[in-house]
Specification:
With 344 residues, the chain is an alpha/beta fold. Helices cover 47% and strands 16% of the residues. It has two domains: 161 residues, Bacterial extracellular solute-binding protein, family 7 (D-Maltodextrin-Binding Protein, domain 2); 150 residues, D-Maltodextrin-Binding Protein, domain 2.
Length: 344
Amino acid sequence: MRKLITATLLGSVLASTPALAETINLKVIGQPLATGLIQKNKEQPFFENLAENTGLPIKVNYKPLDTTGIKDVEQLRVLKSGLFDLISLRMSQVSRDEPTILGLDLVGLNPNFEQGRKVVAAYKDTVDQRLQERFNTKLLGVWPFGPQVLFCNHPINSLEDVKGLKVRVYDQNLAQFVESVGGVPVPVAFGDVHQSLALGMIECAITGPSSANSAGWPEVTTHMLPLGFQLALNGYGINLKAWNKLDEQQQQTLQAAFDELNEEIWRYSEELFLDASRCNVGEQPCDTGKSFNLVEVPVNEADLATVANTVTQVSYPTWAEQCDKSNAQCSANWKRDLADIVGL
């Protein structure tokens, strides 16, 4: 009887004791090391300290994209397969698998950070819904590298001077724009651009000033045209199987952490854009990058008008036709979300 009572009491105590939370392992792919300071100073520290800062029962294994052997265009397929649980998505590159995503950053849509914030706020839920349906992926936020500008190793005085030049692009929408102004679009992975410029395989390339500075593009170019074509939006996607391992409170905690990170990167990205733009042309202060001596090509009114008109004349029509083929409601949803912001 004594043994029976003892066993009963012990069972009651164990039943009333909360079970220790099972550790959830998160395999994470980050931005490429080559992209520079956002990856180094914001993203990687966030993931390395995520468990400690949130108190969540998670263990993060973080790897920059260019250390994995995985290509950026494969990111959504990798997430869907469950090979990795969470990925820092390079939006333009993965839009080849899901054109709906490219509606976030059509050429001419986001000429500055302020407009970009409005577009993301209005359209990200539509992108999230599509990613959940097709790729079993939840979108945890969207952030920018900043305005994407033109670097050339060939003298230019305006956008007109890219006629006949081979220009590195990173998505189909940008390729169509380059064609519309007479250039020859050439898709080149970011890590291969420096060598391609040095060897003369391309004459120009498009990226943000900070990424270009970190990757040494000013070593192999001579001119920079600071005309913003896109905002180079990126985002964080988590496989729904990994997301659903968390209870509702844990999900809210994780989402709040990503909301804070995304907001921090928006601010930091703008600081980097301004500083790196100065660094690339040898101006001061230059606090975040290496000083170079590129020729800064003045942006004229005609070039500004060309980019501004691109949304209605080139980027939206060509994208809408392609996107509707894979997602019948694509362009209708885009108009519903963004027509007032864009001014259609």
